Amino acid sequence: MGKPTSPLLVALGLATGCASEIETPPTTGVSSAVEAVAATNLFHAAQLGDLEAMQQYLGQGLSVTNRQEENGQTALHHAAWGGQTSTIAWLIGQKADVNALDNDGKSPLDFAWMPKGEAARKMLADAGAKPGSELRPPEPPPAKPRAKAKPQEKNAAKP
C-alpha cells in the first residue's frame, strides 16, 4: 500500500509517486525552509479539514502543539477558523491545547465564528475551551501621574 493521496498531499507532492523534500523527517524545531513549509502546510491542512495530510505531517515529526512562527497559532486555531469539526475532534483527541493563546492573546474558540463556527464553538466549549479574553492575564491599571512637588519659595523666612 502506498502513501495516502488526499488532494492536499497531491498538490504538495507528498502523494504516492511524488518526490519531495518535505518527506525528510524534520529535526527538532523549525530550523530549515523545508521544515517551515511542512509546518505551514500542517496549519493549512487543519484549516481545510484534511486529516490525512495532517497525519502525514505529524508522522514526519511535527506536533499538534507546533505554532506558526509569525502569529503563534496552532493547528487547532486553524481548524476552528475553518469550522472543521472532524479535525477539531481529532486534534482534541490528540491532546491539542484547547486554550492555547496566539501572539494576540486569542484562543481557538475566538476563531470559531465562520459559517460552520457554531458546531465548532460548541465542540471547543464542551472540551473546556475559553475565549482568549478569559485566559489572558489582566492588564495592569494605568500608572497614576505623580503629584508635582511644590516649588520651595526662595525667600522663605527661616525659623
Report the count of strand segments: 0
Overall pLDDT, averaged? 76
- Uncertain regions: pLDDT < 50 for 5+ in a row? 16-35
CATH class: Mainly Alpha
Largest sheet: number of strands, sense, barrel closure: none
| Whole-angstrom Rg | 24 Å
Entry keywords:
159 residues, mainly alpha, Serine Threonine Protein Phosphatase 5, Tetratricopeptide repeat, 8 helices
In short:
The protein has 159 residues and is an all-alpha fold.
How would you describe this protein?
The protein is mainly alpha-helical and 159 residues long. It has one domain: Serine Threonine Protein Phosphatase 5, Tetratricopeptide repeat (Alpha Horseshoe), CATH 1.25.40. 42% of the residues lie in helices and 0% in strands. The longest helix is centred in the N-terminal third of the chain and has 16 residues.
